[in-house]
Design a protein that fits this description.
There is one protein chain. The chain is built from 15 helices and 13 strands. By secondary structure, it is an alpha/beta fold. The protein folds into two domains: 2-73 and 226-396, Alkaline Phosphatase, subunit A (3-Layer(aba) Sandwich); 83-221, no CATH class. The protein has an eight-stranded mixed beta sheet, with helices on both faces. Strands 3, 4, 5, 6 and 7 form a five-stranded antiparallel beta sheet that branches. A hairpin with a 2-residue loop joins strand 5 (141-147) and strand 6. Helix 5 crosses helix 10, helix 6 (122-136) packs across helix 7 (182-195) and helix 12 (296-303) packs antiparallel against helix 13 (306-331). The chain is globular, with a radius of gyration of 21 Å. The relative contact order is 0.24.
Length: 400
């Protein structure tokens, strides 16, 4: 038996008036998920423990079977594992986003326009982060390039301070959300002076792209320690994702991280490449479990784009789930596949919420007659509800 999780980051949503009261998942044309739904178990799962902030960090830990209340030490330390930064026990890791802010003279009066700077490429972001590093890096603060707009700062002998994610305050004046720590605030202010008129940003503006004109710190945490996935579950696991957070969780869990060319975390990522990499890991490389993470629905939720979020869900259906299903069936290998989001990213608020999310569990050897479609409402009326999200993987792996 082989096991697959296909995770559409932020895919769950709320009813939207312009979709006649449907969610993007309900409205999207998803024939493969609809077909699977007729033969699967569907229900709701709570991926965010009570009292914890809704994020891809806590939620994906839970989906992988790690109780966030036990294992979570902050988001950025997990990303540090992916980047290859060997954190000391006295280090604090922080996410260092490159964001777009408005251009008022007073930094505190600026507004967050775009948390991803028009989904900036890693190549462009590396140039800008190097400009910041030359001016601001010192013995206490070190800067490391990540992926796209997502980068890392290590604070030597720092502290875990309260920092606001930029995607939580899109369209808001930033003054009330800046760090209380004076050094962090000052670096953010100086970064605007370094970046706003950087030649690369001048060129981006000419092309109609948002300037990537400020760094933004958030997600502070300490060095993580995860139990090996294989030791915990008795299965060899592989991770396919474009984002450092998921790769970092995999590194911490001693899973294989599979890099896929063209996988970039955007709407136009290499969906088929991810699906085929997972199948190859399962059928050719001897892995028991593959985790396919697709970032696009979350990014479209943050952007507030109904049309693009629907498109990302349709791509997930046709270019990931369909490929996995067809390849696994062609091989004749028995498999179980779990499809779900990690958390909702509703178009209405453009950030994460803690609501439970719909899951669909398909078993090629035990086909059920259950739901008609896979979506939030059918999951709700199913009566199936898993309160502790970190136990869901036990259902998938048949460890319960």
């Amino acid at each position: 038996m082989k096991y697959v999780i296909v995770l559409g980051d932020g895919m769950a949503d709320e009813p939207i008036e312009q979709l006649s009261g449907k969610t993007p998942l309900e409205y999207a044309k998803t024939p493969v998920m609809d077909q699977l739904a007729k033969e699967s178990e569907i229900g709701l799962v709570h991926t965010i423990p009570e009292g914890m902030k809704p994020g891809s960090d806590t939620a994906n830990l839970a989906v992988l079977g790690y109780n966030p209340k036990k294992y979570y030490t902050g988001r950025s330390p997990l990303e540090a594992l992916s980047i290859g930064v060997d954190m000391k026990d006295t280090d604090i890791a922080m996410r260092c986003n490159i964001v777009t802010v408005s251009e008022e003279e007073d930094y505190e009066q600026k507004t967050i326009i775009d948390h991803s700077s028009s989904e900036i490429s890693t190549e462009d972001a590396a140039v800008l982060l190097e400009a910041v590093r030359k001016e601001l890096e010192n013995e206490s603060y070190k800067y490391y390039v990540g992926t796209s707009y997502r980068h890392l700062t290590i604070w030597d002998h720092g502290e875990v301070v309260d920092l606001t994610p930029p995607h939580d305050i899109l369209g808001k004046v930033i003054g009330d959300y800046l760090p209380k720590e004076a050094a962090l605030k000052e670096m953010m202010k100086k970064s605007f002076d370094i970046l706003n008129n950087h030649p690369l940003n001048i060129e981006r503006a000419k092309k109609g792209l948002h300037k990537a004109n400020s760094i933004w710190f958030w997600g502070a945490g300490t060095r993580p320690s995860l139990t090996s996935f294989e030791e915990k579950n008795g299965k060899r696991g592989a991770m396919i994702s474009a984002v450092d957070l998921l790769k970092g969780i995999a590194v911490g869990a001693q899973m294989k991280v599979i890099e896929v060319e063209g996988a970039d975390g955007t709407l136009h990522t290499n969906y088929e490449g991810k699906a085929k990499a997972a199948v190859e890991a399962l059928l050719q490389d001897g892995y028991d479990f593959a985790y396919i993470h697709v970032e696009a629905p979350d990014e479209m939720g943050h952007q507030g784009s109904v049309e693009r979020k629907i498109q990302s869900i349709e791509y997930l259906d046709q270019r990931v789930i369909k490929v996995v299903k067809e390849e696994m069936e062609r091989s004749g290998e028995d498999y179980r596949m779990l499809v779900l989001p990690d958390h909702p990213t509703p178009i209405a608020c453009r950030t994460h919420t803690s609501d439970p999310v719909p899951y669909m569990l398909y078993d090629s050897t035990d086909k059920k007659a259950f739901a008609h479609h896979y979506n939030e409402e059918e999951a709700r009326v199913s009566g199936n509800e898993i309160i502790n999200g970190y136990t869901l993987i036990d259902y998938l792996l048949e460890n319960k």
